[in-house]
Amino acid sequence: MAYFPTLSLIFLLIFLSFQSTTPSSIYDHLQLNGLPIGLLPKGITDFSIDPQSHRFRVNLTQPCNAKFETQLHYDFNVSGVLSYGKIDELSGVSQQELFLWFPVKGIRVDDPSSGLIHFDVGVVDKQFSLSLFESPRDCTAADRDPSEQSEIAQNQFEPFGDENDQQDMLKAIF
């Protein structure tokens, strides 16, 4: 019977150690995967992540914009697949370049010592300083839906020839 209190204490310590290592926020999940916490705006409390597929979903109270070197737009819902050093299948985030909005399809940090983070916006890979994303930014209510702007931007390049010509023109913008 003397073993019962000892076993109970061991189980309690194991339980507490798991509690302290389990990520409690989406920002913790980003950090554990080698990504900066500033990729998502400040104040996110409503999120889910599937432990098997690592697919995450973040729910915002409203679409909003955050200013970095460029402006990022976050929809009501942001989702993607989280793995070490990258987010794939990203949806719900757009990046403004000049006056056009482009959907961000993925984010990756190839080598943290390089100090660079890469945003895949479809036709090009945009690089930023990792230091821009060290902490979550305030996010202001969005004025307009950038997805409408993205469709307009893509349609604006149709008169300029085939898809290769369009990609060359978009690369020139970036």
Task: Give a description of the structure.
This protein has 174 residues and is α+β, with helices and mostly antiparallel strands. It has four helices and ten strands; from the N terminus they run H-H-E-E-E-E-E-E-E-E-E-E-H-H. Strands 1, 2, 3, 4, 5, 6, 7, 8, 9 and 10 form a ten-stranded antiparallel beta sheet that branches. Strand 3 and strand 4 form a beta hairpin. The longest helix has 19 residues. It is globular. The termini are far apart. About 8% of the residues have low confidence.
Short description:
The protein is α+β, with helices and mostly antiparallel strands and 174 residues long.
List the defining traits of the structure above:
about 30% strand, alpha+beta, ten-stranded antiparallel beta sheet, about 170 residues, globular
Low-confidence stretches: 16-20, 152-160
Order of helices and strands: HHEEEEEEEEEEHH
**Shape call:** globular
- Report the end-to-end length measured between terminal Cα atoms: 72 Å
Mean pLDDT: 80
Structural class: alpha+beta
Largest beta-sheet characterization: 10 strands, antiparallel
Strand tally: 10
Considering DSSP H and I runs of 4 or more, what fraction of the residues is helical? 25-40%
In angstroms, what is the radius of gyration?
20 Å
Number of helices: 4
Strand content: 25-35%
